[in-house]
Amino acid sequence: MDYLGQQLVNGLTLGGVYALIALGYTLVYGVLQILNFAHGDVYMIGAFLGFFAMTWLGGPLAPTVPVALMLLVMFLVAMMGTGLLGIVIERFAYRPLRNSTRIAPLISALGVSILLQNGALLIFSPSIRSYDTSSYIPSTSGFSIGQVTIDSVRLGVLVLSAVLMVLLTRWVNGTQVGRAMRAIAYDKDAAVMMGIDVDKVIRWTFFVGAALAGAAGVMNGLLLRGVSGTMGLIPGLKGFTAAVIGGIGSVPGAMLGGLLLGVIESLAQGYLSTNFADTITFILLITFMLFKPNGILGRPMMVKV
Amino acid sequence: MLKLSNISMEFGALKTLNDLSIELKEKEIVSVIGPNGAGKTTLFNVITGLYKPTSGSVRLGSKEMLGLSPAEINRAGIARTFQNVRLFLNMSVLENVMSATFGRTRSGIFSSALGLKRSRKEEAEVKEKAQELLKFFGTRLTGYRWDQPAYSLSYANRRRLEIARALATDPKVLLLDEPAAGMNPKETQEITEIVGSLRAERGLTILIIEHDMHVVEGVSDRVVALDYGVKIAEGDFDHVATHPDVVEAYLGKGSTATK
Amino acid sequence: MSNLGIGTDEWVAQHEERSASQSPLKKLFARIPLWAKWGSFFVIAFLFGMFSDNQYLLRVGVNLALFIMLSYGLNIVVGYAGILDLGYVAFYGFGAYGYALLSSEQLGQHWPTYITVPFITILTALLGYLISLPSRRLFGDYLAIVTLFFGQVFVQLVLASDNITFPWADDYVDITAGSNGIPGLDTFNLFGFIFDDIKDYYWLLMVIVLILTIAIHRVSATRIGRAWRTVREDALVSEVMGVSVNRVKTIAFVAGATIAGFAGTIFAGMQTSVFINGFDLPLMIMIYAAVILGGSGSLAGALIGAIIMTILPELLRVPNYGAILFFVALLLTFFVLSKKFSRFLIYVVSIILIGFAFQLAMTAIGVTQANAEDWVVGFTGDLLKNWLFVPENRILWGNFAFILLLTFIAFFSIAKPIWKQVLLPFIGFTAIFLWEVRLIADVSTTRQLIIGAMLVVLMILRPQGLFGQTRVEIL
């Protein structure tokens, strides 16, 4: 039972990170109907930016500022940086293709993804940089419920992802930009005619989506204690999967999908042979997609004949 | 020939078609009129198998069409054009028409790849048939036009091409969705003549959705008026055009109709 | 404001303009009959096969032929039928692994080639059929997603199948050797003729490519090809016009899968080993790049795209060729952007001046220069060493230049035309600087960077690829 509990906790933590990445995918799909393949690499850049912020403040072994402040700076730098990156990507790889064929933005996204990955490889070299925080956040800290332990890092990640998700929901539902975004997702041409500045809103959407991915990158860097240029691939794929399960285009769907995926993965790894865990996950996904291609909370597309 | 019995179509709570029954005898030309949103195109979609009605039946001759795929329905003998002209824009004029012969031809991938005689012969026949069909519209869609992409055609030519494409499927019943929409008087007159000759020369049974009353008057043996998915009048043109329910549907309560 | 699409009248009016403005070169090119263009490729290929014994080049030829097959296959699925299959590379892997399992010590099977190859090819076709079944319910993005997942399932399955414990067995079974790959495969042996030279495979593949070219061309020009195109254009209407859309989609899927599977078996036989990481996303992206670059929907495009994607990395390996390629590409870009020869000269001169200015500036600040031997690679380095100032700390400056270049390009695309002209020489110089300082040394990354940049630029400038036709789409 405790084993299960532990797996659940790990799963939720992982799920929180996936959810943040999934949100980026879903937000962009909602407004532009494109699958932003470059998103996983944005997440990777976020992790790196956080790393550099940390190094700039003295690094994991000799921090020059209190730990809490360092973490705050790391997150801010990463989120701002990736947010900006998101805007740049939108401007150059997607905006010129707004009126092009369906497949053009996808290929462009592919190109951007390749550029980011190899750019990172070029500049940062393929080695893995250490993100080891154990020296000042002892891994034994944190608390436990029975035999289930949540170390501080995990706890922090869990709390932060929850906070970010709440903030995002309020942004989408409460602010003018958020509402405009939903309007565009529903019917872009009508939104234009209602006087909504589509370009500006799309820029904001990319900013927010990318920033969340950046935060996820730092989180995963902290969880896994390292960053590397290729770390964006698998989490990117998984975040994308999560967005699809939850229903691509749906914000609560992305969150649900992320958490679900994290938990399922954790359970699969804990209980089934690790070898086939990934295979089974994918097969489940395919079967799921066949019966509910719109995901759990997605809207079916209605086409007028 | 074509018998629609008690067709009802519901989209959630919205009942687009309500217990509709229409019958067309062989070689009849029937027009369907009604204000926008009356369910006319929905009716076409049901007949051609794009929508599955909540109840009712569609019979072509003695065969039940309900439950068949659109391709099967087409092969049984029902063809249509679309309200907003859906051509294969990036394909050439000739190819648009040739492509519709798919259901009547048989060359598979292997016989085509190997260049078998049977396959080549069929290809030549298909090409000839398409050219013949296009000649039906005069010289507008012939000659150099054959190889031009469909998106380079003018609006009226696109509508004509769509009809030619539908004809290539060798139908017994032709459904035309607003064939004269957006046309000037001369083109409208031409369409009226074409519809007539489609019946006379090719023995087609035709069901037309139209808003232009000149066309409806010039072409129809019978007119059916719909409103909110219900048949509100049926008969010859004069009877329906002056029918109080029809007038009310188009012009509002308290209006009178004059020709 | 959102552009609500191409209006007929506007397009028709511009049509005359468009055909008149086609360059004389293009018109001349269009006059050459089809068979001559294709013929020249095959003639060169055959001549090469007859007179060359260069092992390296023959291997490149073999890789090219395999890649052409894959491009052809993907072109059928994506280009002709419009199905976005992101897991296509799995068919290739399936073919290769299938052959491997029947021709190695892994399972102790050594089937004769003339049985293995057709058997595995047919099996791959069957797999293609199975995977096409879900495609009937899904379309567009969802289909892409599911096919992507299928591709991943294949990879994961192979990776995991080195350690399967069946419920009734005590010990585990190793079927696919997981991430270790399967070495020591039998090479092709057709009725006594053993394929022990790379040239044997070269000839086999060239003949296959020739046959495929003719076959696919025929199919695309007739009934099935037309049906594919109507499905790509408007699947709904296609169905109403009598085309059995599901059946036609399946045919495309299976055709593509069969070609890939076939290619896979040949690859395995030639390579005599298989590794799963060669059948994953990176290769998938390369094939897509080839098809898109050439123009999806065009057979010639698939060929040209495959040629470019195979030859390019090889050229970049040799510093001299790479350098020539880079500078030719750079000059060409500037030439095309200049429109006038006089302007082109101005750009070139400006770049030279910037170079000298840079040199002066750097020496004035006191940045240490790198030794010429450290960075001069190839004859272009030789030519430039007196002009280009290469700082000692190449990595740092290289990174800086990379970011600067991206910033310049970013500004370039949003700048007003006047500023565009000013920025261009700076972009040129920074590119040259970056090339000589970093890129020329870091070949594999450079190659990827070029591919990535090319994809983005291609989509913006010419989404239909080199040989594709401008397409009008209803959304």
Concise structural overview:
Chain A is mainly alpha-helical and 305 residues long. In chain A, 72% of the residues lie in helices and 4% in strands.
Overview of the structural elements:
The complex is a heterotrimer of chains A (305), B (259) and C (475). Chain A has helices spanning 2-32, 39-56, 67-94, 103-124, 152-174, 176-186, 188-193, 198-224, 233-246, 251-271, 274-291; strands at residues 129-130, 142-145, 148-151, 226-227. Chain A is mainly α. Chain A is globular, with a radius of gyration of 19 Å. The model of chain A has no long low-confidence stretch (mean pLDDT 79). Chain B is α/β, with parallel strands linked by helices and 259 residues long. Chain B folds into two domains: 2-87 and 163-251, Rossmann fold (3-Layer(aba) Sandwich); 90-152, no CATH class. Helices cover 38% and strands 23% of the residues of chain B. In chain B, strand 7, helix 7 (185-202) and strand 8 (205-209) form a beta-alpha-beta unit. In chain B, helix 3 crosses helix 5, helix 3 packs parallel to helix 6 (155-167) and helix 7 (185-202) packs parallel to helix 8 (213-219). The mean pLDDT of chain B is 86. Chain C has two domains: 52-315, ABC transporter involved in vitamin B12 uptake, BtuC (Orthogonal Bundle); 322-441, no CATH class. Helix content of chain C is 72%, strand content 3%. Classes of the chains: A mainly alpha (305), B alpha/beta (259), C mainly alpha (475). Chains in contact: A-B, A-C, B-C. At the A-C interface, helix 3, helix 4, helix 7, helix 9 and helix 11 of A face helix 7, helix 11, helix 17 and helix 19 of C.
